[in-house]
Amino acid sequence: MTNQSLRWPGGPLTGTAHLPASKSEANRALLLQRLAGGGTLSNLSEANDTVLMQRLLAQAASTDHLDAEDAGTVMRFMTAYLAVTGWRGTLTGAARMKQRPIAILVDALRALGASIEYVEQEGYPPLRFGGQPVAAPAGQLAELAVRGDVSSQYISALLMVGPMLPGGLRLRLTGEVGSRPYIKMTLKLMQHFGAAATEVGRDVIEVQPGGYRPADYTVESDWSAASYWYALLALAPAGSSLLLPGLREKSWQGDHVIQIIMQPLGVVTEFRADGSGASLTQRPLAPPPVDAPTTNFSDCPDLAQTVAVVAAALGRPRRLTGLDSLRIKETDRIAAIQQELRKFGADMPEVAPGVFEVQSANFHVDGQAVDTYDDHRMAMAFAPLAMRGPLLVHEPLVVRKSYPSFWRALAAVGMQVG
Ligand SMILES: O=C(O)C1=C[C@@H](OP(=O)(O)O)[C@@H](O)[C@H](O)C1
Ligand SMILES: C=C(OP(=O)(O)O)C(=O)O
């Protein structure tokens, strides 16, 4: 096992945070660029998820075995792409990917005529594609009801191949739809690449046939990655401030709500007039409210770990809801947060069905080692605790999934990373 130590030398945190580009935007844009047959994408990150998406799209033409590793968007988006292009071969993933469900997407693609079989466990990757392209009857709108309460990635995947179907696609989303902003991001990018894709009613989305047009797109910096800098600032000494380049005030990423969530936790955001990024300033905390405030993470699940750790470290009780999807991400993130918070004298018990409360009576950071559970967000969400004391992080390279330069970026603002 490799370990990394983090130590803040003292004094305010200032400087510029180097952020990666959004992997969510990039992986959509890469697929749409491929389906459009052109267009230039700028600011693609070196995140493994983005590199993988590029590689698999390039390899599909020449191989019958593809590996999406631990990248959910790659697994789900490629599944839809390989189905509409009539690919023959096997799409697999990492051990954890084989535990992340995919039946909702496979069922929908099968209903459109794709031949996809499960190689190991029913309902889970790996998948074998029979080479039969989806065959919705020419000129007829394909209509599907798809559950929206497990992962929005199935819906985004289906929507993006919708313009390639001869009669277009109408999706009716059922259940309590989670991660909605990611669906809206998909629609925005599809429209950017010339598709007619619109919400025609509550949870009904229609996509017209006709494919895509080549377009250029510059990927925005990643707001989920920015959340770790908000956390660092919230836990930093008084007088701290940071510049986060490449963030837009009007973002297609739902995780930009971190700027609102972090206000009562002492971080104020201002956007630079020239559009070059966000300036973050730390402000003194107001007295805590009498009752623990509740934040619903159903629209922004990737922020839950960040906020849980900051609330615990600041001793600000907070209730977290909308966490269901965390159980099927890179790890069971609810269990992982609980386990790791306990090392610091905090916890996040389920106090009512679906309601988790961050509690911290005796929070202390004094050299504990954080386990990262093959989850980049466990590493990055707990790293800001180094502002409060020395810390060890196990398997730090896990950050390569979305933010390979994270540790270098921390070192660049003065964190002692060893
Ligand atoms: O579409 C996307 O780019 C993503 C959607 C979300 O997943 P779910 O829809 O599974 O919640 C999010 O957690 C993930 O990091 C990226
Ligand atoms: C859940 C995540 O990614 P994915 O589902 O794309 O693997 C994430 O990056 O937090």
From TrEMBL:
Q: What is its EC number?
A: 2.5.1.19
Q: Which UniProt keywords apply?
A: Amino-acid biosynthesis, Aromatic amino acid biosynthesis, Cytoplasm, Transferase
Class of this enzyme: transferase
Q: Which reaction does it catalyse?
A: 3-phosphoshikimate + phosphoenolpyruvate = 5-O-(1-carboxyvinyl)-3-phosphoshikimate + phosphate
HAMAP family on file: EPSP_synth
Q: Which CDD domains match?
A: EPSP_synthase (cd01556)
The pathway where this protein functions is: Metabolic intermediate biosynthesis; chorismate biosynthesis; chorismate from D-erythrose 4-phosphate and phosphoenolpyruvate: step 6/7
This protein's name: 3-phosphoshikimate 1-carboxyvinyltransferase
Active site positions: D302
Localization (cell): Cytoplasm
- Record has Amino-acid biosynthesis as a keyword: yes
